[in-house]
């Protein structure tokens, strides 16, 4: 961790005072302390754990803001400590509401279950998002697109058509793929990754995944050229533009290669997926699981009992937790297995992102028509 300069410390202290004065902020002692009647030892312990986690989250937010404002070098993976502190804040709040259900408060603007998140902490998560936007900003040589959402949809629909899907299923492929873009980057193109030195770009792929996607694209490209020469002309233009750089930092090629690497082969299963999962948000969650735990997700679909298929491999459960699924609170983290229906329901942290993706996709369709 970089040693903070005096100027940085002063700015960090100012940032903390501003942070604590944000509307809706609160003292480190939770409102639960004001509850009438004596608390049990267990209740006192979970209350203290939450207050400690809240304090730590504020502290690391203030530290990063101070480092950024002072233009100090950031540590390797500067977002990891922030992420872990946020997880701990949500986890300890869930433990608190498990012990004191009366502490479950009002709905929050992020759409998180109130049992997991105190709406008074909204300004802290706003600051968290702002810091990640700074730390994950696209490199200066990144090649943006003026139509990033349309690019994702157009590429996905073209790939789906080349795979033999009908119009309705190709439409679902476009919608689902835009959901993946929002899940991975909040809909921001060419971003870095403050928690990984490997995964970068609009679909957060690693170098080997990008190369694999490019090989698969070269194989399918003639099929697409037969029915959509305009898209192939755009592709040729972007290939020439990105020739001497990491293709993950050209939005078009990053999305194209990311879809071809992990999802294109599964597009042929979209008719089965949408038949089982009627909710478009669930469909997006399913394909996001292809990104997180691909092998068991494919096995679940091929089993013929997708929603009842149970995961019990500790390694897979760990991957899910590392991606904010069953990650919050003792009860969730104690789980040793889960069905896919339970996994989809536990992906509530993705809901807002997928809702935004769905709205953007509907807007694209309306504009086209």
Structural class: mainly alpha
**Biggest sheet, in brief?**
2 strands, antiparallel
What Rg, in angstroms, do the CA atoms define? 22 Å
Shape: globular
| Mean model confidence by pLDDT | 91
Task: Kindly estimate the percentage of residues that lie in beta strands according to DSSP.
Answer: under 5%
Order of helices and strands: HHHHHHHHHHHHEHHEHH
The span between the termini is: 53 Å
Total DSSP helices: 16
Number of strands: 2
**Strand arrangement across the biggest beta sheet:** 1-2
Percent helix, as a range, is 55-70%
In quaternary terms, these chains amount to single chain
Low-confidence stretches: 1-36
Tags for this entry?
single chain, mainly alpha, two-stranded antiparallel sheet, 16 helices, globular, disordered N terminus
Gist of the model:
The protein has 369 residues and is an all-alpha fold. It contains 16 helices and 2 strands.
């Amino acid at each position: 961790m970089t040693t903070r300069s005096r100027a940085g410390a002063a700015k960090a202290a100012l940032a903390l005072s501003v942070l604590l004065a944000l509307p809706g902020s609160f003292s480190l002692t939770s409102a639960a302390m004001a509850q009438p009647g004596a608390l049990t030892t267990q209740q006192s312990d979970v209350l203290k754990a939450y207050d400690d986690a809240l304090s730590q989250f504020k502290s690391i937010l203030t530290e990063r803001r101070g480092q950024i404002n002072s233009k100090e070098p950031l540590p390797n993976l500067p977002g990891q400590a922030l992420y872990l502190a946020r997880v701990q804040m949500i986890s300890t709040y869930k433990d608190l509401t498990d012990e004191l259900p009366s502490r479950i408060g009002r709905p929050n603007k992020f759409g998180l279950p109130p049992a997991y998140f105190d709406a008074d902490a909204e300004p802290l998560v706003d600051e968290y998002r702002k810091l990640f936007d700074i730390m994950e900003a696209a490199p200066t040589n990144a090649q943006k697109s003026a139509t990033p959402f349309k690019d994702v949809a157009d590429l996905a629909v073209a790939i789906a058509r080349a795979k033999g899907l009908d119009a309705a299923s190709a439409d679902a492929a476009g919608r689902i793929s835009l959901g993946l873009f929002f899940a991975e980057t909040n809909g921001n193109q060419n971003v870095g990754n403050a928690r990984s030195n490997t995964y970068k770009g609009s679909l957060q792929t690693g170098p080997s995944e990008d190369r694999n996607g490019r090989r698969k694209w070269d194989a399918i490209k003639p099929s697409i050229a037969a029915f959509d020469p305009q898209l192939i002309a755009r592709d040729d233009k972007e290939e020439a533009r990105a020739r001497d750089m990491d293709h993950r930092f050209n939005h078009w090629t990053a999305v194209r290669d990311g879809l071809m690497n992990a999802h294109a082969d599964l597009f042929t299963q979209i008719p089965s997926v949408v038949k089982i999962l009627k909710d478009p948000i669930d469909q997006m969650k399913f394909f996001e699981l292809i990104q997180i735990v691909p092998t068991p997700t494919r096995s679940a679909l091929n089993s013929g009992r997708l929603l009842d298929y149970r995961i019990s491999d500790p390694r897979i459960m760990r991957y899910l937790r590392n991606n904010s699924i069953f990650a919050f609170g003792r009860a969730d983290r104690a789980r040793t297995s889960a069905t896919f229906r339970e996994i989809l329901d536990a992906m509530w942290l993705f809901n807002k992102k997928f809702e935004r993706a769905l709205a953007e996709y509907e807007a694209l369709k309306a504009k086209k028509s």
